[in-house]
């Protein structure tokens, strides 16, 4: 094990079971499951864009689907394994593992159906985009079984077959410990077989879903049930007995796998017959539009479709206008610019709020020393209406002279106070 040690244990590090972050050990099994969920989510988004659905539906649905699927995966394992109820959600028991893919499927599909009903989205169309990608998550999840040293087959006795990944060395503890053990016991690597078969099934269903747009919807959901049900039906009896969920003496995983296989076949037949009844054709339509993905569906009322090269129906939509829906960063950046534009600065000559509130033209009506005035009583004369010495006047009574008669100190002009003193002297 490599780690950064503290007084009470490692802070960061890695060992045969997982990695250590801030003193907490995260198993490789959990990392494989999380990586599978993330990859499946990304592929589902891509397939929804391709099949004329809003990709936001994936994130809206997964908020509810993922937690419910994990809980149901745990419940199915505990019930079918015969575990006492007090250990179902005990932290120590959870850390020891125990999840069932079949239970997760039951909970996840049921929750997805309810979300689609609430959002008024065609469940079969959405399932055709999501369910095929689950095979990728399952393929990665099976490598978590490898790191845990579990879900393997019978003992390999032929030395020529004792090589990885056809077989896996088991020496107790984690899956990696068998490689360092001097005398491991080799078993058939069923986790690897199932992982490869899941990837093959994903490649087939994803490729068909990428190119096929004909009615009826739901065939890829049925294809998943058929493929995975068949794989588990074959592999389940060949597992080591201790990895078969058989609470009450019933091999529950095998029973559910057979039901998935039969249900997938029955569902596909029912969809084809129903399409023939409505469209006079098993595939497509003889009466109308043969495509099953013509209408754009979204969980939001105000979302509009736009042209996209990925979307099989993208050519039917207009090009998205630029900057119609700016990003959060752009909206915040623009808001800061507007605030800066509305803020007065010293460079503009504004030194106080009162000056900033003055209307235009007030500064033009204020006398200054540069105009030869020291002060005034009464109404202040405007610059354009003040007589000057060039006109031969020192003061005025009555109407103001015309424009261009402003007195200046250079012309000997006087202020209104000076004109009053001269009038008194003349009297």
How does this model look, in words?
The chain has 427 residues and is of the alpha+beta class. It contains twelve helices and six strands. A four-stranded antiparallel beta sheet has the order 1-2-3-4. Strand 1 (2-6) and strand 2 form a beta hairpin. Helix 1 (28-50) packs antiparallel against helix 5 (123-148), helix 4 runs antiparallel to helix 5 (123-148) and helix 8 (219-235) packs antiparallel against helix 9. The radius of gyration is 41 Å and the shape is globular.
Number of domains: 3
Largest sheet: 4 strands, antiparallel
Number of strand segments: 6
The separation of the N and C termini measures: 115 Å
In short:
With 427 residues, this protein is of the alpha+beta class. Helix content is 47%, strand content 6%. The protein has three domains: 28-153 and 189-300, no CATH class; 304-341, no CATH class; 384-427, no CATH class.
Topology (elements, then pairings):
Elements: E1 2-6, E2 9-14, E3 18-21, E4 24-27, H1 28-50, H2 56-81, H3 91-95, H4 101-119, H5 123-148, E5 167-170, H6 177-180, E6 185-188, H7 190-211, H8 219-235, H9 252-279, H10 328-341, H11 353-357, H12 416-426
Antiparallel strand pairs: 1-2, 2-3, 3-4, 5-6
Helix pairs in contact: 1-2, 1-5, 2-4, 4-5, 5-7, 5-8, 7-8, 8-9
Question: Keyphrases for this structure?
Answer:
single chain, alpha+beta, 427 residues, 6% strand, disordered C terminus, two-stranded antiparallel sheet, disordered N terminus
